[in-house]
Specification:
The complex is a heterodimer of chains A (273) and B (380). Chain A is of the alpha/beta class and 273 residues long. Chain A is 39% helix and 22% strand. In chain A, strand 7, helix 7 and strand 8 form a beta-alpha-beta unit. The radius of gyration of chain A is 20 Å and the shape is globular. Chain B has 14 helices and six strands. In chain B, the strands form two sheets. In chain B, strands 1-2-4-6 form a four-stranded mixed β-sheet, covered by helices on one side. In chain B, helix 8 crosses helix 11. The chains are: A alpha/beta (273), B alpha/beta (380). The interface between A and B is medium-sized, with 31 and 33 residues.
Chain lengths: 273, 380
């Protein structure tokens, strides 16, 4: 645990992930600071979710080191890993809410099991988490009785149950309508600002990326690594890398790429027409 | 635990010095680590205090997470419950922001447990309704199933033989090992336990007759069906149940494919085929197992075989196989039905699987009872 790693809530050093002999991603390095919203972008199948699973210690990388709050999660034993992850919350692509218990009980579960709070204290805290994500009145519903957007928010409430310093979200706004999606973005933003929670978000929803992200990295299947990093607005105008430009401007591979300065390029095509 | 709580800062301090006013001074920091101690302290606050005012002084509070905010709201609720005028002051701008996010009144509603208890009468009534619903749905599923089976046969060109072969492997071939093992052990056990009483009459040689008839007519099909209920009925229920909660059944429906025809009929068909075949294997293994006992009692294999041949008739064998056919159908059928009845969530799949095995065994025993009475009156 060096000072360097201690500064960041998440620090990834030269990590390779995948199967032995068949790496999905190689030599990935990045850091996330407290209160930062960090987005991992990339096309389908480039290993975004796999990378996330490595960050939370579900999978072991082929090589490299991953530090959460300055603690090495790769070499940690199961008990240590539990301790390290107590400061992190995770939501999964399909929400992974427990279907047989109510929302309130879902959020209460980590509180009851991992803190010394009494039952009434757990209830109060869990109900407040649900209120925080705008689900008051639905405490006693089963997950299956809710819409997709509500389930996403409930999963977020459960991930926040222990007031984590880092939240890992896998596709938080996938499948949500624009209004709900925007509300979720707002919620994430306010949590990052007021509670100083760092967010590591895997997504490919461009609107959310522009609305939220302080910093993004973009992964690519072919080059097996990070092909772009920086603020989303910068990357949108970066025509040097065609794959990145296409991604941020929603273009297909056959669409022409404008020359270095976009307005001039626009004029040129008009002249051609 | 207590050591750790002492180390962490005090969540709040009670001050009763000023007359007519109860003052609660919040500590510097309230979060998950010390909120538990705070709640314990809250429970110890005086009931029906003389003071009419409650002042919560948050002037010192710098760090407060949701658990801490929960404690603060609970302190306010305590005051309201004691009919005191509650005032909170000194919250920093930052904390006020997160304080304002919560609505104390709707929280009170939310934390109320919604669990309603049922009295015995209500429970009995519900149980009776559930059972009658279940019987009705079983009857209607018989009809659905038969219609689907007729369609299945009519469209024989569309039968997916590959699916049927895969299913046959899962249901039949993969069950051969366990069937042979259980059959041999069962024959061994039956021969041993019947040898003891028969020895008292000096007729141990009739062990072979007893085992052969019991095995072929009753126990062979019966035990094989129970193996099928545990191995196959449960697997059908779990598979179809998981498909149901993943909307795969709906997908079949909108494609115009009847799930009963597409999923249930081939499964039941395969189980009906597999049950008699497995029964034959079970019987053979059982006879071999009992032969070992007979030989160890000092008789030759030839004596054993001639006894078996003289006692067993073709009718016995056909009766056994007929039973196996029916049992197989019942086990596969109830497994599919329980799978289709799955509600939502992972727990529901577990419930369906359990129900498939339990109902399967009940149906086998019921059918065995019907067979016994019928065969007795028909003199077969």
């Amino acid at each position: 645990m060096s000072l360097e790693q201690n500064k960041y809530v998440v620090s990834v050093e030269n990590v390779s992930v995948g199967f032995p002999g068949q790496a999905l991603l190689e030599n990935i390095s990045f850091t996330v600071s407290a209160g930062e919203i960090f987005v991992i972008l990339g096309g389908s199948g480039c290993g975004k979710t796999t990378l996330l699973k490595h960050l939370i210690g579900l999978l072991e990388p082929l090589a490299g080191k991953i530090f959460i709050n300055g603690n090495d999660i790769v070499s940690a034993g199961p008990r240590q890993r539990g301790k390290i992850l107590a400061s992190a919350g995770v939501t999964f692509q399909n929400n992974a809410l427990f279907g047989s218990i109510t929302l309130l009980e879902n959020v209460m579960l980590p509180l009851e099991e991992l803190t010394g709070l009494s039952e009434s204290a757990c209830r109060q805290t869990a109900a407040m988490k649900l209120q925080l994500v705008g689900l008051e009145g639905f405490e006693h519903y089963l997950p299956a009785q809710l819409s997709g957007g509500m389930q996403k928010r409930a999963a977020l409430a459960r991930a926040m149950a222990l007031d984590p310093k880092i939240l890992f979200l896998d596709e938080p706004s996938a499948g949500l309508d624009p209004v709900t999606s925007a509300q979720l973005d707002k919620l994430i933003h306010s949590l990052a600002v007021s509670n100083h929670i760092a967010f590591v978000i895997v997504t490919h929803e461009l609107e959310s990326v522009f609305a939220l992200a302080d910093r993004v990295i973009m992964l690519d299947k072919n080059s097996r690594g990070i092909i772009a990093a920086g603020k989303p607005e910068e990357l949108q105008n970066d025509t040097a890398n065609p794959a990145v430009w296409r991604f941020f401007n929603r273009k297909t591979e056959t669409d022409p790429i404008p020359a270095a300065s976009p307005p001039a390029a626009g004029l040129k095509t008009q002249e051609q027409l | 635990m207590t050591d750790r709580q002492e180390q962490t800062s005090n969540p709040f301090e009670l001050d009763c010095s000023s007359p007519g006013q109860l003052v609660i001074r919040l500590g510097k920091r309230i979060d998950l680590t010390n909120a538990g101690a705070g709640w314990d302290k809250l429970d110890a606050l005086p009931q029906k205090p003389k003071e009419k005012n409650l002042l919560i002084d948050a002037g010192a509070l710098r760090l407060c997470d949701t658990a801490g905010m929960g404690l603060l709201l609970a302190l306010e609720q305590y005051g309201q419950k004691q009919k005191m005028t509650v005032q909170t002051r000194g919250l920093s701008e930052e904390l006020k922001l997160s304080y304002n996010r919560f609505d104390s009144r709707s929280l009170l509603e939310a934390v109320k447990s919604k669990r309603t208890s049922q009295n015995l009468c209500e429970q009995l009534g519900r149980m009776a309704c559930d059972i009658s619903d279940d019987i009705l749905s079983q009857i209607s599923f018989v009809g659905q199933f038969l219609c689907a089976a007729v369609q299945f046969v009519k469209r024989y060109a569309k039968i997916r033989w590959r699916d049927i072969f895969t299913l046959s492997e899962l249901v039949g071939v993969n069950a051969v090992g366990i069937t042979l093992l259980l059959g041999a052990l069962f024959g061994l056990i039956m021969a041993f336990s019947s040898a003891m009483p028969l020895r008292q009459f000096g007729v141990e040689v009739y062990v072979s007759d007893l085992v052969a008839v019991a095995l072929v007519r009753v126990l062979g099909p019966f035990i094989t069906a129970i193996i099928l209920a545990g191995r196959t009925g449960s697997a059908f229920a779990a598979e179809i149940g998981t498909m149901k909660i993943n909307n795969e059944l709906d997908a079949l429906e909108v494609m115009g494919l009847n799930p009963v025809r597409f999923l249930c009929v081939p499964r039941v068909f395969v189980t009906i085929l597999a049950a008699p075949l497995l029964t034959v294997l079970f019987n053979v293994a059982g006879l071999a197992g009992s032969a070992v006992v007979i030989v160890s009692l000092g008789f030759s294999v030839n004596t054993y075989w001639s006894h078996v041949q003289s006692i067993l008739t073709a009718t016995d064998i056909w009766v056994g196989l007929g039973k196996a056919l029916v049992f197989g159908g019942l086990v596969g059928w109830i497994g599919c039905l329980r799978g289709l009845q799955t509600k939502s969530g992972a727990g529901a799949v577990g419930i369906s699987t359990t129900r498939a095995v339990v109902s399967g065994i009940v149906l086998i025993v019921l059918a065995e009872g019907v067979f016994s009475v019928l065969l007795y009156y028909l003199n077969i």
